[in-house]
């Protein structure tokens, strides 16, 4: 598939079904694209589709099957859109393109030659629990224990929205980071990574109450 140059071609790309519940179109919307007037269209649609299918089939579908509807807040960014976001990082909170290859930039492989994809999502069923407790770690630990193919999660304050990534490199370490303070420690930053003592084992104690409320 070539880079879409017409409305019809872009509609065709948008109709590509990435998994049983998700189509490409819902991952192409970008506020930066809308405001800045920069098309958010892949230069390599085939790679973007392959990376998106991996993210949807291995990560998003299992979460939605277990916890209910997922809302896509943002996902794919073209190199031009992400570059503009990085130029205005204080306003748009985007990292540089190189750090987003195989991340938000689905259609460029990372430095190691692996594809990957990132999407910012909201798990709707989690909102009542989060609004009541402020405890984003319940969702983070549930995903860590039940979704083996996630590569990284980064949590944000509003709606307990978080970036979640899937990488082609099956050996990549899983990382959870948050800009929101952990209510159990009072600190933001890393919740876990492979060098932390809390990385392995079950973390059911942290999400048991959330799951009981579903």
Q: How confident is the prediction overall: mean pLDDT?
A: 95
Please state roughly what percent of the residues sit in beta strands, choosing from under 5%, 5-15%, 15-25%, 25-35%, 35-45% or over 45%. Answer: 15-25%
Order of helices and strands: HHHEHHHEHHEEEEH
What is the count of helical runs? 9
Strand order of the largest sheet: 1-2-4-3-5-6
Overall geometry comes to globular
Model regions low in confidence, pLDDT < 50 over at least 5 residues = none
Count of DSSP strands: 6
How many structural domains? 1
Helical percent range? 25-40%
- Major β-sheet, in short? 6 strands, mixed
**Alpha carbon gyration radius:** 17 Å
Question: Would you give an account of this structure?
Answer:
38% of the residues lie in helices and 17% in strands. The protein has 214 residues and is an alpha+beta fold. The protein has one domain. A 6-stranded mixed sheet has the order 1-2-4-3-5-6. Helix 8 packs across helix 9 (204-213).
Protein traits:
single chain; 214 residues; 17% strand; alpha+beta; 9 helices; six-stranded mixed β-sheet
Topology, element by element:
Elements: H1 7-14, H2 31-36, H3 45-67, E1 70-74, H4 79-87, H5 89-92, H6 97-100, E2 116-123, H7 127-133, H8 137-146, E3 152-155, E4 162-167, E5 175-182, E6 187-192, H9 204-213
């Amino acid at each position: 598939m070539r880079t879409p140059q017409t409305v019809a071609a872009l509609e065709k790309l948008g109709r590509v079904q990435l998994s049983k519940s998700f189509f490409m179109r819902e991952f192409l919307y970008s506020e930066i694209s809308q405001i800045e007037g920069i098309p958010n269209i892949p230069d390599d649609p085939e790679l973007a589709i392959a990376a998106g299918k991996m993210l949807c089939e291995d990560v998003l579908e299992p979460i939605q099957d277990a916890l209910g509807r997922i809302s896509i807040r943002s996902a794919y960014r073209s190199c031009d859109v992400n570059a503009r976001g990085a130029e205005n990082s204080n306003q748009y909170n985007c990292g540089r393109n190189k750090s987003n290859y195989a991340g938000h930039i689905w259609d460029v492989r990372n430095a190691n030659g692996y594809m990957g994809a990132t999407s910012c999502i909201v798990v709707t069923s989690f909102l009542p629990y989060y609004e009541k407790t402020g405890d984003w770690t319940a969702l983070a630990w549930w995903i860590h224990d039940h979704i083996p193919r996630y590569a990284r999660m980064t949590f944000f304050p509003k709606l307990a929205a978080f970036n979640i990534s899937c990488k082609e490199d099956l050996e990549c370490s899983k990382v959870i980071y948050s800009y929101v303070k952990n209510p159990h420690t009072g600190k933001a930053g890393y919740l876990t990574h492979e060098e932390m003592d809390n990385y392995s084992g079950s973390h059911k104690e942290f999400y048991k109450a959330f799951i009981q409320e579903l």
